[in-house]
Amino acid sequence: MEMFNFSGASAVPSRSLLDFTPLSAPQKRHITKIYAALTVNVLLTALGVYVHLNWLRVPTVLPLILSVGCVLGLNFSSQKAHAESKMLTRDRALMFGGFGFLNGMLIANYLHAVHFYVGPRVVPAAFFASVAVFSCLSAAALLAKQRSYLYLGAILSSVLGYFMLASFVNIFWKTQLLTDILLWGGLFMYLGFVVYDTQLAVAQFDRGNRDYLVHALQFYVNFVSVFLRLVAILSDRQEESNRRKRDGRDH
């Protein structure tokens, strides 16, 4: 999901870094819209998983290309949406929801394999853990008296760049150490993006950015990235547990 992360430190207004004021009513309404859109997209992702596994199996490249198109279309239409003061149109809703649905199709085979070959409890456990962690970190960012987490932007953007390079290297020179670094480091990186993007959404709202769909897309990328890494981590632990049980029976 790294390719879909489009947070940027340059989008942070300097005055927001020293903002100690609590959330205003308009800010709260904006955040509520973001979470509502995020919830819808998570549900559409689950639907995409179900459709791919039961009704429509398509080559991975097709939903990948279409999902990139949805992201680009949603971002490019943001200026027009602001000009017309209409963030939610039919086309933008289709692009936003389509991104979630298509990502469900992309991760369907992986989740299916984990469910049947590792253990049926891994995916639900990872999902509920993701919800809990995401909610707590996002709430902490919203309740913070100072927008200090905005300082994380430059650091996280740099780490993301290094991790993308390391992921490319790991394709050709795969090592367990680098895989573990990418897995655990990626998890903590996206946890950082959760708090950063939460405060960034508020800061950009103060600057006049009312596009809650783009903000929700950033939240969604963070949520799914955390979820997939937790699935991988819990899968490793479950496989180790299964291996120990088999060894115990053999002895």
Summarize the structure.
The protein is an all-alpha fold. It has helices spanning about 25-55, 60-75, 80-85, 90-115, 120-145, 150-170, 175-205, 210-250.
Question: Secondary structure elements and their pairing?
Answer:
Layout: H1 25-54, H2 61-76, H3 78-84, H4 90-117, H5 122-143, H6 152-172, H7 176-206, H8 212-250
- Average pLDDT confidence is 88
The radius of gyration computed from the alpha-carbon positions, rounded to a whole number of angstroms, is 19 Å
Largest sheet: number of strands, sense, barrel closure = none
Structural class category = mainly alpha
Helical residue percent band: over 70%
Shape label: globular
Low-confidence stretches: none
Number of domains: 1
Strand content: under 5%
Question: How far apart, in Å, are the first and last alpha carbons?
Answer: 43 Å
* H/E topology pattern: HHHHHHHH
Number of helices: 8
- Strand segment tally: 0
